Amino acid sequence: MSGIIKVASFNINGIKARLPRLLEWLEETRPSVACLQEIKTQDEGFPAADFEKLGYKAIWHGQKGFNGVAILADGEQPEEIQRGLEGEPEDEHSRYIEAQVFGIRVACIYLPNGNPQPGPKFDYKLRWMDRLHARMKAIAAEEVPAVVTGDYNVIPTDRDVWSPPAMAPDALMQPGSRDAYYRLMHDGWTDALATHNPRGGVWTFWDYQAGAWQRDHGFRIDHALLSPELADRLVASGVDKAHRGREKASDHAPVWVALRAA
């Protein structure tokens, strides 16, 4: 594949409820790879045929009513590498899928929210982040061009939220969440959106409540982390913000990175 490879991530918040919006976005923006989170469907309910009509081939890891992740590729079948994270065999949540596509290792993640905190859900979030850290270390050791993208459910800095005091009690902004995120970064991964927006002020999520979208009360929790082998190929990154304002939209906007093809 020549030119530019565009890898996008979209927490669709229910693939059946948002399918028209998702197909619309795919047609309008045409990412090379689209990583989806919160598909909220069992494997057999995944609408692969609808994507095939647009030329996208897919792999997915579903779960009834909750979670669920998928990777779509334009004209190429993603080669599945791994689904789920090691280290907690009793964890049945569908939150991780990894594939090789267009010469790039692509991992799609839906990190636990962690609320309410403190409590078992927050403890699970931190354990999951430790398991992700171990997997990302293993990927880094392979020295392959890689992107780990999706809904991290972490607001990395105060620049990434409309009002730090308003979100201070939330699991997304706890020191433990942020520390775990920066442990990932310290292994040499690059936060693509932060690289191109060092002053912050870029949101990827706006709650359905309290007029958050209309008031632009958002925050950044959807990220794309690039391995050193891929960071050098980063051309651009952005958020498809307008898609959040459409009828029956997800509460997230898609994020994307544009990469030079090898």
Automatic annotation (TrEMBL):
Site feature location: Important for catalytic activity: 222
Known EC number: 3.1.11.2
Family classification: Belongs to the DNA repair enzymes AP/ExoA family.
Cofactor: Mg(2+); Mn(2+)
Keyword Zinc (UniProt): no
Residue ranges constituting the Endonuclease/exonuclease/phosphatase domain according to the UniProt record: 8-252
Cofactor detail note: Probably binds two magnesium or manganese ions per subunit.
Keyword terms, alphabetized: Hydrolase, Magnesium, Manganese, Metal-binding
Gene Ontology BP term (one): DNA repair
Organism: Novosphingobium fluoreni
GO MF, one example: double-stranded DNA 3'-5' DNA exonuclease activity
UniProt lineage: Bacteria, Pseudomonadati, Pseudomonadota, Alphaproteobacteria, Sphingomonadales
Binding positions for Mg(2+) per the UniProt entry: 11, 38, 151, 153, 251-252
Residues forming coiled coils: none
Active site as annotated: 110, 151 (proton donor/acceptor), 252 (proton acceptor)
Pfam families: Exo_endo_phos
Feature type site, description Interaction with DNA substrate: 252
Top-level taxonomic group: Bacteria
Name of the protein described by the UniProt record: Exodeoxyribonuclease-3
Residues at the site labelled Transition state stabilizer: 153
Principal EC category: hydrolase
